[in-house]
Structures are given as C-alpha cells and as structure tokens.
Amino acid sequence: MTRFHQSVTTDIVIFTISDEQLKVLLIKRANEPFKDQWALPGGFLFEKEEPDKAVVRILWKKVEIKDVYLEQLYTFGSSGRDPRGRIITISYFALTPKDKIKIVVSDKVQTPTFRSVKQLPDIAFDHNRIITYALQRLRSKLEYTNVAYSLLPQYFTFNQLQRTYEIILNKKLDKRNFRKKFILLGLIKPTKKVLKGERQRPAKLYQFISRKPTELKKFF
Amino acid sequence: MTRFHQSVTTDIVIFTISDEQLKVLLIKRANEPFKDQWALPGGFLFEKEEPDKAVVRILWKKVEIKDVYLEQLYTFGSSGRDPRGRIITISYFALTPKDKIKIVVSDKVQTPTFRSVKQLPDIAFDHNRIITYALQRLRSKLEYTNVAYSLLPQYFTFNQLQRTYEIILNKKLDKRNFRKKFILLGLIKPTKKVLKGERQRPAKLYQFISRKPTELKKFF
C-alpha cells in the first residue's frame, strides 16, 4: 500500500482570564509565511514524535511555558489553510489562571502576549478558526463539566464563579437562576470558610468536589 | 524550517444497535500487518486529501457504505501503535440505525461485519483503544446531547428511548428516574400520536425537538 507523505503540525490555544476578560496567548511569527504576524504557538512534529510530546516541546521552545493542562481539540487538514501546501494540524487547548503560567521573557521567545478574544488582531493561517473552535468547546464544557475549576482558586464565592462563567460566555447571567442551575449540576460543595469583605457581609466559600478535568457528573 | 514526513491514516468507528446490542463495524484485513485479523475500516490519506474526504472515500472503498453521519473523534499518534513505524491516525465515529446503512456485499469489500462491543474478537493495531474511546464519547454524549435521535425512529415511546440508553450505557435504568431526568434535559417533546400495542394500552409517542447533531441544550 502506498504511503503518502504529510506535513503535520500542532497549534495550541491557551486561554486565561485577566482584567475581567477572556484572553488567548499569541506569538509573533519569526519566519515566513506570515512573518511578524500574530499566530498561535505551534510547530512541526518531529518524525516519530508523539503529538502530546510535541506540544510540550513547542510550548517550551516558543513561549517558555510548562506545566499547563492540555487537551486535544481537533485536527484540521483542509488544503487552503497554509500557503506552503497542505499541512495537517493537530490542535490543543488549555485553560489556566494567568498567575500559574510562567512566561519567561527572553530574546529567544516570540513576544508571547495574551490578547482579549473580543479584540483579536489579524491572525496568521486559519488560526482564527481554531480559536473560534476552541472557544466553542470551552463554552460547551462549562455547561456540563467542572472545567471552570482551572480558572478559579481552590475556595471561591458564588459571585466569583458566576463572574467566571459570564466572562467566558460573554453574557450577564441572572444570579438566582445561575445559583439554582449550578447547584443542580452537583459539581461544587459549600465549605465552612467565608470570605470577609470590608463593606459587604461575609460570603460563603465553595469548592469543586473534584479538581480533575475528566470527571463529569453522570446524569443517567 | 525542517518539515518531517508523516504517514497519516483515518480509522472509523461505526456504531449501531441491533438484536438489543450495541455493535461496531469491523472488516477483515486483506494485507499485512495483521492480515486476516479484524480491524476498523480505515486507510492512508492521499497527499493533500482532506481528512473528512478521505473518510468518505475509504468507507466506500472498504465497506461500500455512504451517507452516514460522521464526527471526528481523536487523533492518535503514539509510536507503538503500528508495526510499520509511527503512523498518525485521525479517528472518526458514527452512529446510525442498522437499516440505514447499505452494505453492499461484493467481492471487493472486506467482509464488513457488525460485532457486539461486549464480545469483540482480537482486533488489529490499537483499534480496541479507539473503540473504547469512541464508546466513552458516545456515552458521555448521551448525558447532555440529542445524539440518541440517530438511533431512534422519528416517533418513539419513552420505553424505546430508555431501552436505547440502557443498551449503550450497558445498565438498567430506573423508569421513573429516567423519565424525570430526560424531561429535564428538554430535548424531546410529546406528540399527539400513540403506539397501539396488541396487549398493552396505547403508549404516547415522543419526538426529538431537533434532529440535528450539533444542537445542544444551553443550560446557562
């Protein structure tokens, strides 16, 4: 059987929340095509290199980030997506509190910068499409998983949780309704701790029952 | 930048329900490696061929199936998965009523056979792992999407719906609980039709509000 040669890359969408905005990490391309344009961090897989390992290597090389939670997103392979010819890309996405990411600013790395998803610059290749797809996945995961844990401290108030949801979903949510629905999901539990504000009355602190990404609540 | 050469295949997990069992379509391999062993239908991508198009081509070539709903599952790329060297596979999964699949039995096709997921034979490569992954995806989709519509007729009783869930989840569900939870999901609506049995009293018929695969109910 004939085996055809394919070029395979990986591209990584890293989301965080800062300044009350959902942001994605972009880098400035050092080479053609799209030299000096913003793009997702990514690169070619070495021969025989496993995609999961390539992602870790590329994140370190391009933006000097490590220890970030990664999940495979989707594999894109249409012919028009790269001017160099058909290149297949295995995309990944990550979600992390901003302070957990250590970006080492050095001469080697390509100006890694978090940009608000609402005000993205011109982006190279089909990376806009990949970001849109990742955002969709993230939003749909909010509906039925504990994924928000990775953006919140261990203990948080219902207001903090709601604000996280509002920022990602890009809409205001009704306070009572949000509380009712979220409790129904069965993903969090109250603690005995409270958050004492200076002017407000103390707010009850909650925590996620599980802080592992794969555990979904079984409905049936 | 150096571009490495990769071999890329696609493998397809097609599920159906028949004889009250969840089954997956396997073919008998015509070539080495694993000649004469059961495997998922699959094959190499042509140079510059889009993965989605390769799947359609391969399904027709290997099992003479067309017009089946397909969804990309996951891309596997570990080094030990194929004795010919590292081959990346983009896997897909499908779910379809058995009578909608037209398998043309001919000399060209490789003995396409539906096998119960509970009694799978020895399977080539890491295809067992791919089937397990697909089954997981399918089960988790039952929790929050309308995916079951693709296995049910347009009008169905609550009992038929529950039985479909039980077969896929491989467990008995409490009738009252199932009904309560499913209504909460807001995916189906009652019709004015009834199913008249010979010995039972007529059962109310329901239908899915949407019979498109991507529409999920938004919780928030």
Automatic annotation (TrEMBL), chains A, B:
This protein's superkingdom? Bacteria
Question: Which Pfam families does the entry mention?
Answer: NUDIX, WHD_NrtR
Question: SUPFAM superfamilies recorded for this chain?
Answer: Nudix (SSF55811), Winged helix' DNA-binding domain (SSF46785)
Which residue intervals define the domain Nudix hydrolase in the entry?
Answer: 5-139
The molecule here is called Nudix hydrolase domain-containing protein
